[in-house]
Structures are given as C-alpha cells and as structure tokens.
Batch of 2 targets.
Target 1
Amino acid sequence: MRIDVVTIFPAYLAPLDLSLVGKARRDGRLDLRVHDLRAWTTDRHRTVDDTPFGGGAGMVMRPDVWGRALDDVLPAAGTPGRHVLVVPTPGGERLTQARVQDLAAADQLVIACGRYEGIDARVAEHYAATGREVLELSLGDYVLNGGEAAALVLVEAVARLLPGVLGNPASLVEESHAAGLLEYPVYTKPPVWAGLAVPEVLTSGHHGQVGRWRRDQALARTATRRPDLLAALDPAALDRADRAVLAPHGWYVPAGAPAPVPVRVRPARDDDAAALAELAAATFPLACPPHMPAADVAAFVADHLTTEHMAAYLADDARYLLHVADAEGELVGYTLTVLPRAADEPPAAADVAAAVTARPAAELSKCYLLPPYQGTGLAAALVETAAAAAAATTVAGEPVAVLWLGTNRANRRAQRSYARQGFTVVGTRRFRVGGSLEEDVVMARPLTTGQE
Ligand code: 6GU
C-alpha cells in the first residue's frame, strides 16, 4: 500500500520509521512518503495560510497551495485503483476500526494535514467534484492543533492490518473492536502481584471455561464502558450465555429486535398510569388459559387494570408497590406488589399468606412482560426489584419476610420462571376472573434484608 502524508511539519511523522510501521516500510509492505506542503508555495515567505473570509480568529490554509500539492501527489482522476484523499479534521466522520479496515484495502491514501483553523473548504469540495474519494476523519470529540497526530494514528492503525505486518495475525481476531466488543483483561506472570492474584480460571487449564470467562468479561466491560457498542451488536452474535451476562447490566434482546435494548427497572411514577393500564390490558389476556371466556378476561381488565386503578395503586404507596421495565421510554413489563396489612386490619390474602408463614408476607400480585421480552431474563430483574423493595418495608415494625404469588395452574412457563427465581410451591387457591373461578398455584420465597 502507498500512503502520502502532506504537512507543513514533515518531522512530526518521524516516528513512522520506528517499530512495526518502520519495519513494514523497510520490508516494502508500506510505501510511505512524507511531503512538505511548503514545496508547493510560490512566494518568498513560503506562505500557506491567510485570514478567514467573514472574519474571526486564526488563519485558514490557502486552497491554491493545497491544490498544487494534491494535483502532484494524487493520481489523475479515473486512474485505476482506489486512491483516497483523507483530510483529518475534528469536524470529520469519527474514525472506527471498520473504517480502518476499509482503508487498509485501498491502494493509496493521501493524508492532507491541516493546521490553524483548517483547510479552505473548496479543497475537499473540488477533489470530490473531480471524482476523487474524499474522506474527512476525526479521531474523537476533542481538538488537536493539526492533522499530523491523526495521520500518525491512521498510518499505524492501517499498517498493522496490511498482510505480513503483524507477527501473529491471530491477535487481530479477538482484539478490542474487532468483534464489536471491548477486549477482555489480560494477565501474565507473576501469578500474584501487589497482593492481587490472577483470576483462577485462567490458570485452570480449562480452555472452554477460559473462553467463556473472557467473553463474559468483554461483554461486561462493554456494557459498563461502551454501551453505544452494545446497542450496535447483531443479536445473532449473542448466544444464551451472552444474554445472561448482559441482563444484569440492563441489556436485553427482545425477540425479533435488530439489536440489544437497554431496559431500566424502576419504581413506577404517577405519570406512568395510562401506559401501565395499556400494558396491563395487553399482557393479562396472554396469561389466561385458552378456555377462559373473552368476556371474563375483559371484565377483569375493566375491574382491575384501568388507568384509574393504576393511578389508585400509585397513590396508595403504603399498600402497593409498582415497578416498571422501561425500554427507552416504552413500558415493556411491570410488577404490582401488595404489602401486607397490619395485624389489626382485616387480613387480605391472609388465608394464603398464613399458610406460608407466620411472618409478614407481601403478594407479588402482577408480573407481566410484553411477549418479545419473555425469556430474556427481564422477569427476573423485575422480580428481584420487587422483592428488594418489599424486603425494605415493615408492617407494624416487622420487616416483610416473604414474597408470595398465585399463578394460573395451566401457566407452566410462569411456574418454571418463578421456580428459577427462588419460589417454591406452597399451596393452591381459587382466583376469580370475571365469571370464571380459576385454580392458582401459590408459590413463595423468603426475603432477606440488606442487614442479614
Ligand atoms: Cl483529525 N484533527 C484535529 N485538528 N483535531 C482533532 C482531530 C483531527 N480529531 C480529533 N481532534
């Protein structure tokens, strides 16, 4: 590959004689030429800049000087091969590994390093208009004094992808950004340093477990440091184990979605009431057994799940806890937890709760998800949040110690899911849906408070 760098500071590019890039040049894999822009000036002072039209601070690089330089360095329009004019500028497209890979496949890069306030805008316009590929690139959201540092970055990033430049091309496969994820942490000898031991799995000799651990670390790091990269992942690249790692970081892969989605489980707010009612009306029928008359289902929704009901639950936070799964503003799941009444109040579901325990028990009355989110791990996150909130409440000075729920006997999927979340079957109950009297399985799990 050939790379030409045009700059008023050729000495700035001296490091490109060193290390892998220097070796690639000596080996003939990279034909790198650095040009002094002032060679194309025509005046005694070798002037490359002038004051900006329209006024303002600083100086702008003259298009006539750049035009003579680039006409010499770029091949004529229409020359076979891919010749790219790269203009580093903080106003350019953000440089990514994907773009680096793309540029590594070109025949020639001509990097035009601007200084001062930049190069007269007609330069990029002219070379694009005459059929050249022109690419304005930025390293990131900060300002450098000129394009030279960016040229160093680009040459190194491109050169290491050229065939034969890296000693071990396998290291290109797993490195950060190659798979759309940040790289896992790496360790070497000694096995204990500064009191810190290398993670045990890495010395175990289990290649499968090492691979899984590294993948988990890469996913977790990406979730915390670069959530923007997760949002761009293809779900086809995420297996079940990957999804299980992402869920506790608040990322879920709903069925049919083009990418993982960040979902926040949070207490419901008063202004969620209408959206909650809509979600409840959409999800409740899906959990009813098929033999249940539609009219009974509709009656239940009208009697328990309207905006007014939700507003009433929200207003009575001594009795009800509502949590929602908020997917970037869309409610995709919710729980309703009913706190126990004090001993001197008429017992609500005391028949069931008493069967479970003598201690205060809260009822997980509702836990529903939109179908695409079922099986994603989001139900567990909702239940954990509801359980933690219930455990943090007290009734007549006693902490709520049990979370229980009733779920339709026919809904085996729900029962399996609750069993995975620590619930065991403790009994049955009758549950009225409109005119239908249904048999529920009652399940319960103990709650631990933060202090225990
Ligand atoms: Cl490519 N040039 C300059 N001058 N500043 C930058 C940059 C480029 N990328 C980030 N900041």
Target 2
Amino acid sequence: MVPARGAVRIWGGAMRILFVATEAYPLIKTGGLADVTGALSAALAEGGEAIRLLLPAYGPAIAGLRHRHLGASMGTVLGWSVRLIEGYMPDSGIPVTLVDCPPLFDRPGNPYSRNDGHDWPDNHERFAVLSRVAATLAVGEEGAGPVDIVHAHDWQTGLVCAYLWQHRRHHGREGTPASVFTVHNLAFQGRFSPHVMERIGLPVDMFSVNGVEFHGDVSYLKAGLYYSDKITTVSPTYAHEIQTDQGGEGLQGLLLARANDLAGILNGEDDRLWNPADDPAIHYPFTARHLSGKALDKADLQRELGLEVKADAPLFAVISRLTEQKGVDLVLKAISDIMEKGGQLVILGAGDSRFETACRMAAKTCPGWVAVRIGLDEALAHRIQAGSDALLMPSRFEPCGLSQMYAMRYGTLPVVRHTGGLADTVVDVDDSDGGTGFVFDTATLPAFLAAVHRVFDLYRNRAVWQSIQGHAMGQDFSWRRSAERYRRLYRELIHQ
Ligand code: ADP
Ligand code: GLC
C-alpha cells in the first residue's frame, strides 16, 4: 500500500523543501528577490525545515559557495550537458545546488541581460534548463528521493510547475511533490515565441489558454500561475491588486479563478543584515534610543558623496532599480523643488539608460546638492540608509518593496505611494499617532511634491521627527511571522 502523502516524507517534523530561484543573497543579487530567497530560506531552516536552494551556476555564485564540491552529472538536459555543483550558503549554511552549464550561465553581464541592457536571446533555454533540472531533482530521479515541496520564484522558474504537472499526469500524485509559485513581480512575464515549445520539452496540448499560452506566446510566468498548487505573492495588498483590471497585467482572469489558491504573504527584512546597531558598512552604530551615531553617519555620507556637509539640510535618498515602475521620473522632476527648499538628494541605482543619463545630468547640474552613483553597491546602500533622513519610493506599483522597510529600521522616513507592499508597511504620520512615514495616493508630481513638502515641514520640528523615527525603528518586519505562514501553507499542501 502506498502511504498517504506526507506520512512518510515528513520525517522528524522537517519538511523537505526545494527553493528554485535565479538569485539569492549573498551569492547573486540584482534586487529584492535575492534578499527574500536568502532570508526566507534561512528563516525556514531556523524553524527546523530541511531546505535546499537550487540556483544557476553563475560565476559569482560558484565563487561565493562555501565547501564547494562537484556533484552529480545530470547528463543531457534539453540538449545541454549539465553537472551539479554542491556547497553551502556562506552565511546561513543552507545547502545549495548550482546548475552548472557554462555555455548558458557562465557569462559577463547580469543574470538576465547583457551589459548593454538587452535580455540574453536564449533566456527561454537558460531558464527551461534550470527548471527541468529542478523538477528532475524534486521527483527524486537522481537518487535522493522526492522532496515534499518545490517552491519556485518568479517567471524564470515557472516551468518547474509545468514539468511537475506533466510528471503527475504520467506518474500520479504520489511521488510528485506539491508546488508553490511566488510572484515577486507580475510585470515580468517571460514571454517567448510558441516555437520554443518543442525545445523546452512541453507537449503541444499544453500550449493552450488552459496552459502556458498567453496572447499567442508562451509565458513562463503563466506556467507558474496555471500549474502550481498554490500561488503566493509578496504582500496582501498586491495579492488583491493583481486580481483587478488595473493591476493584473492581463492575468487577472486566471488569478481570480485561482483566488482560493492565492495568498499575499508580506516579505520580511533580514535583521542579521539590516541592523543599524551592528552594521559593518557604517562607522557609527545607532539605535532608536541613541540616535547620535546617525548624525555622524550623515556627515560621513555627505563627505563621501561630495555633498556639502550640512547637518540641517534634509537628505533625501533613492536606492533603486531605475525604471518606470519605481517612479524615477517623478523624483527627477522633484529635484528643483527639493533644492529650492534646501534639501539634498542622493540616488544610487541602475536600470534604464535614459534614467541613468538623466540622473547623471542632475548630479552635474547641482554639484554639492545632488549626488548620483550608477551601479550596484551593497555597502553604499547601507551607508545611504544610515546617513539619510528620508527615502523616496514613489512607485507606480510595488509588489512588496524592501528598501522602505530597511529605511524605517535605520530611522530614515519613507515617502511612498499607497500601493502594494508600500501600503501594507508604511503608516502616514497624519493618519496615526504611531505614523512611520509619508504616504501619497496618485502617481502624479503634485501629489508626490505635497508629500515631499510635508517632510520639510516636519523635519524642522526635531522632537516630533525623532519620535516618528522611534516608531519607524520599532516596527517588527522580521521574517519569523511570514516564514510561519509559508510553513502552514506547505503543510496544508502536504496533507491535502
Ligand atoms: P526591487 O526588488 O523591486 O528592486 P526591493 O525594494 O524589494 O525592490 O529591493 C531592492 C533591493 O535591492 C534592496 O536590498 C536594495 O537595497 C537593493 N538595491 C537596489 N538598488 C541598489 C543599488 N544600486 N545598489 C545596491 N543595492 C541596491
Ligand atoms: C520584486 C518587487 C519588489 C519585492 C521583491 C521581493 O523585485 O519589485 O516589490 O519586494 O520582488 O519580493
């Protein structure tokens, strides 16, 4: 007799979970996805679960792995020769498997695009190979036995759910792990020509409205949304927004149909890494009770960035991908206002070349008052969070957003639009005695400027400002609660 699902596999209380993603901090990071996979996997392991991360073997990921050693050969996967590299996360010690296929993953540029910003033309192959390896390992064909749960993140891993569904179709429910698919950003959909179906090893009957087809293309994101057992996204408000015509990016019908399988679980912040009392990137540690270090960090930062060292000039910050989503255009248009009112601005970011160019121009036009650093710089991101007074995040949409949480932890008050995870994490100072930031409604310049002006007004009143800093720094955005929600979701699936 085949034992009930879950009965044999949950051993000693631990669930066997395979996380599949294309980023995990500190091995490889382009944005919040890496923070989440790194920290959530650590929180789940702390809770006693047996978790393994599966990532592509990018050069920096191989180099960063602890106790690295060669793993099994996977033979030929979708026409590519693939080996595994095994090791551990350098910080949390979680086991990591890297999918090694140098022609696909060992390249300059970032995980998704060339140095000129264009997507790699073979992304459909790269992420199909990653997903196929994930599904093969998950069902235990490589000898390790099946896992209980496969948790796939974003469009790059959507095909994992399709491959597992195919496996279940042929082999039944027993022996096929349940899948959870997390949408970190519905705007990135991984759309390719229908011709890729054969290359990625999917039968034509899956190219359908009830399958991976989306407006005549194959969508890897839709594969995840359609074939996963449960869908999550990274905040409750975004979970609601993506079921509407305004926020659904054309997928609202499918998401509404799957509403019972969809949960919004707020991201957490990794307090091992983001803690102003103990941050190796800053010179002067501080806490909500002892804020004097923050003023010294501000002066340090102003010096480092070539800004005039002025304690009383409100220093605004942007730490972000420079894209339409993040409302960078609104920030650029607000610069003259910020200057006129005696504020300073630092922008750290990378993204669309038109925004990079416009930011550089702004720094040239306003030396001493606007500083711009283009590129990714983790340590500088910490110093900016520590040394600034307010963080600007006028996003058009924001699935969760982590930078505003880090800002609050560092007593840097966020200025955010009321959308997605920003709405779920920041309380406007005018709406509550326990307010933590400045929230505005519409993505227009007047609405954004009104919020920026409120910063100037409040900043002058040091006592009130400091009490708001106290509220912001006292928020609990730790992963513990959210990790528990994921564990409950996994358990529910296993016992189904
Ligand atoms: P998203 O994932 O949409 O880019 P989040 O707010 O969720 O936005 O996460 C952004 C993460 O990326 C944060 O850890 C932030 O500090 C980091 N980040 C963004 N831009 C840069 C940059 N230019 N240099 C260093 N870190 C950055
Ligand atoms: C995406 C979203 C961001 C979210 C992050 C981690 O990049 O744009 O809002 O915080 O994923 O989930």
